[in-house]
Write a structure and sequence with these properties.
This protein has 217 residues and is of the alpha/beta class. The protein contains 6 helices and 10 strands. The protein has a single domain, classed as Vaccinia Virus protein VP39 (Rossmann fold). An 8-stranded mixed sheet has the order 3-2-1-4-5-9-8-10. It has a two-stranded parallel ribbon with strand order 6-7. Helix 3 links the parallel strand 2 and strand 3. The longest helix has 17 residues. The radius of gyration is 17 Å and the shape is globular. It starts with 8 loop residues before the first helix and ends with a strand. It comes from Rhodoferax sediminis. InterPro entries: DUF938, SAM-dependent_MTases_sf. It holds the Pfam family DUF938.
Length: 217
């Protein structure tokens, strides 16, 4: 039987630092939606590290769904991890996210820079529709920050992305925060992560003021 699992070296490297931040930010229990689950490595790892959370993985690509399910199979059982639901096909650009109810957290890693810019506004609008009143949207990846020198590696990465597709590229944090505000969300925290990435935490605008955490998480 063939192994349907796809593999991302980046997901392998960053899954533990991200999990440690999620364990700090999130309560013990809740329901989470992952947008653009990709290979499925993240959701499988987070589900094991946050057993009180139920995870709904999703991706717009049909071949990704098979990989996600394969990563989330319990050893020897043939079924998914008990706290992972079957992956669903979801495109953030759709006006409706079928099968998604109210969730306590939405997690999205490394999507905004490899998708056309309108996906950012669509992600924010969808999060505003589906987040519980005190829910959070968590995005992870590289960002350009005004007043902060961009790492040479990120500059080179941005150039390579734009060469592959002119609609791609590392996004300005201020622009992302503006799109969030248009949807009624506020940037509450920006957390420095290894390899010049940031984890951004958005909540509903009435929940409070943004915070900044320096240093790798």
């Amino acid at each position: 039987m063939s192994d349907l699992r796809q593999h991302s070296p980046a997901a392998e490297r960053n899954r533990q630092p991200i999990l440690e931040v999620l364990q700090r930010l999130l309560p013990k229990r809740g329901a989470a939606l992952e947008i653009a689950s990709g290979t499925g490595q993240h959701v499988a790892y987070f589900a094991s590290g946050l057993p009180g959370w139920t995870w709904q993985p999703s991706d717009p690509q049909a071949d990704a769904l098979a990989s996600i399910a394969a990563w989330c199979v319990r050893d020897g059982s043939g079924g998914l991890l008990v706290n992972v639901r079957p992956p669903v096909r979801l495109d953030v650009m759709d006006g409706d996210w079928p099968g998604v109810g109210v969730v306590d957290a939405i997690f999205c890693a490394n999507m905004l820079h490899i998708a056309p810019w309108p996906t950012c506004a669509a992600l924010m609008r969808g999060a505003a529709r589906h987040l519980a009143p005190r829910g959070v949207l968590l995005t992870y990846g590289p960002y350009l920050v005004d007043g902060v020198a961009t790492a040479p590696g990120n500059l080179a990465f941005d150039q390579s992305l734009r060469a592959r597709n002119p609609d791609w590229g590392i996004r300005h944090l201020a622009d992302v925060a503006h799109e969030a505000a248009q949807a009624g969300l506020r940037l509450r925290e920006q957390i420095a992560m290894p390899a010049n990435n940031l984890l951004l935490v958005f909540g509903r605008a009435e929940q409070g003021h943004p915070q900044t955490h320096g240093g790798p998480a």
